[in-house]
Amino acid sequence: ESKGHISVVLVGATGDLAKKYLWQGFFHLYANQVSSGHSFSFYGAALAGPEDGTPSMFQTLKGLTCLSGVTPDRCALLKDQFLKLSQYRQLKSAENYTVLDNEIEKLLKDEGLQEAGRLFYLSVPPFAYADIAKNINSTCRPMAGAWLRVVFEKPFGHDYEAAKKLAKELGMYFQEEEMYRVDHYLGKQAVAHILPFRHDNREFLDPIWNQHHVERVEIVLKETVSAKGRTSFYEKYGVIRDMMQNHLTEILLFVGMETPLTINSSKEVLQNKLRVFESLRKLDKESAVIGQYQNYSAEVTDELQETKGFKTLTPTFAGVLVHIDNLQWDGVPFILTSGKVLDERAGYVRILFKNGAFCLQSENGRKSENSQCKLKQIIFYVGHGDLKFPAILVSKNLFKPLMPALSWKEVTEYPDISLFGQPLSDYYIYSPVIETEAYTLLISHIFQAKHESFITTENLLASWSFWTPLLNSLANEYPRLYPGGAENKNLL
Ligand code: BG6
């Protein structure tokens, strides 16, 4: 990639996501790239005028932190440089975009810089996309030869038709390769490493990653929070749209897809991901259970009264049984579960291998204590729940894997807990050398144009076309209501 100047424009620069993660991610990007030969300018943009936007944005910037491993002196210097390169701009009218474009061009000219690209990160609600997209396309495209990347945050529609409409609209302004749709779970290190791990260890894994050796696959994202503060959104979505159509589906693809020949080819990875959709068995009502714990309605009741004034029947919990009907996965259940206000926060995908299957059954009602009865499993642990850090766990009785990647290390000291019936000493455990937030990883992947870490239009529509019939068939079903929440495990 040619070196040159990169302009980053963060639209929604004073919003929650920007404050919490995005500025931090751009700062890490800058810190990692500062000696790469690229130069940068960062524009934070929002609807507010400079008098309101500027102080609020700089308050966030002043609180930025460096990744572990950076000395305090170095960190202070980097932060100082980053602050100097960052400015607030109001982006409200079409004219504002013209002013911004002129400003970027003037900077390039005055400093004699070659333009490498422009990155627009849209951290705004989807109803605002079309207008912003139109302005970027008509006014803010970079010079010939430089790239344009435009990043969008979900939700991307609430069913197949809506997603298609939105995709069509954006397609009027941008080429497919200019768009990056974020699913932040693809930036969680354990999830981002499913494929590299499979690929690096393919000699061991390929022979057993199939129906002959896999008993079942569990994909679980349990939360303890409700939807407090965002009820008006969540009430329209519910758990299947909010979590399953995107996060859990993407994890399913990484486990179910054929190992690509090379993981450095976005194209091949994306193609293999898409191919999984072709083999997914159609879902019907029998494939799913939906529920709601009363703690959910108890927590959001104030907001519901304000907005609607009636009792909520939104499913906040779902368990869905998915099958990939191809030769590799014939008969293997993929069990997807997710919910809010549950007993614990935990996220993982767990691949259970056969011949440890009898361990799940109890003898005369008691679990066998037989030492041979050890589950063989590989777990990609997102990093909540008992094990706080992201990790890849491999049963020692399965095999000694290769290292997942250079940026992961073997963990030898760990909490005294057991996971899925095995003490931690029964696993090889790997964790990232540096733990990063999902957004930091994703922003670096945007910079590297790693499209496989984002949701392409085809992927998005294929996913919605898989989920929409189920959503339609459940539209008039009431979720089962369960008492309590935190203390409840009965659905899982
Ligand atoms: C979001 C959902 O995509 O993911 C939220 O809209 C959910 O409802 C969140 O709480 C969970 O993400 P994380 O990173 O907190 O596990």
TrEMBL record:
<keyword id="KW-0119">Carbohydrate metabolism</keyword>
<dbReference type="GO" id="GO:0050661">
    <property type="term" value="F:NADP binding"/>
</dbReference>
<keyword id="KW-0313">Glucose metabolism</keyword>
<protein>
    <submittedName>
        <fullName>Hexose-6-phosphate dehydrogenase/glucose 1-dehydrogenase</fullName>
    </submittedName>
</protein>
<comment type="pathway">
    <text>Carbohydrate degradation; pentose phosphate pathway.</text>
</comment>
<keyword id="KW-0732">Signal</keyword>
<dbReference type="GO" id="GO:0017057">
    <property type="term" value="F:6-phosphogluconolactonase activity"/>
</dbReference>
<keyword id="KW-0560">Oxidoreductase</keyword>
<dbReference type="GO" id="GO:0006006">
    <property type="term" value="P:glucose metabolic process"/>
</dbReference>
<dbReference type="GO" id="GO:0005783">
    <property type="term" value="C:endoplasmic reticulum"/>
</dbReference>
<keyword id="KW-0521">NADP</keyword>
<feature type="domain" description="Glucose-6-phosphate dehydrogenase NAD-binding">
    <location>
        <begin position="9"/>
        <end position="191"/>
    </location>
</feature>
<dbReference type="GO" id="GO:0004345">
    <property type="term" value="F:glucose-6-phosphate dehydrogenase activity"/>
</dbReference>
<feature type="domain" description="Glucose-6-phosphate dehydrogenase C-terminal">
    <location>
        <begin position="197"/>
        <end position="488"/>
    </location>
</feature>
<dbReference type="GO" id="GO:0009051">
    <property type="term" value="P:pentose-phosphate shunt, oxidative branch"/>
</dbReference>
